[in-house]
Design brief:
This protein is mainly alpha-helical. The chain has six helices and four strands, in the order αββαββαααα. A two-stranded antiparallel sheet has the order 1-2. The radius of gyration is 30 Å and the shape is flat.
C-alpha cells in the first residue's frame, strides 16, 4: 500500500483523497487566476466608473433608486392590510406583553389538551 492509498477513504459510493482534492483546488485556482488576469485593465476603483447610472443618466442620490424591503412586500402587505392593522395595534414593543400573550395562549392550549375540549 502506497502513502497515497493510505490517505484514500473508500466507500460504496466512491472515494475521497485529500491529495486529489488539493490537486483539483490548485488547478481551479490557476484557471481562476488566468480568467482574472485577462480582465479589463481600464477599470479603476474609486473613480467615476463606479458611480451608478440609470438609463444613461447620473443618479445623484443613491437612496432614490434603492429598492427597500417595504417596496418588495408592498403588494403583500397591502392585500393583508386589515390583518396587519390589527397586529400593529397589538404590537406594543414591551417584552412583558409578549410573555403575557405566550403564557395566556399556552394556558389555553394546555387546557384544551388536558381538558379534552
Amino acid at each position: 500500500m502506497t502513502w497515497i492509498e493510505s490517505l484514500t477513504l473508500n466507500s460504496p459510493s466512491g472515494f475521497w483523497n485529500p491529495i486529489v482534492w488539493l490537486v483539483f483546488l490548485v488547478i481551479f485556482a490557476i484557471i481562476g487566476y488566468l480568467i482574472y488576469s485577462r480582465g479589463n485593465r481600464s477599470y479603476k476603483p474609486n473613480t467615476d466608473q463606479v458611480k451608478p447610472f440609470l438609463s444613461g443618466n447620473k443618479v445623484e442620490d443613491v437612496e432614490e433608486i434603492r429598492v427597500r424591503a417595504g417596496d418588495i412586500y408592498w403588494g403583500f402587505i397591502e392585500a393583508l392590510k386589515g390583518y396587519y392593522d390589527v397586529l400593529m395595534r397589538m404590537h406594543t414593543g414591551d417584552v412583558r406583553d409578549y410573555i403575557l400573550w405566550y403564557l395566556g395562549l399556552g394556558a389555553i392550549i394546555l387546557f384544551i389538551l388536558v381538558g379534552g375540549v
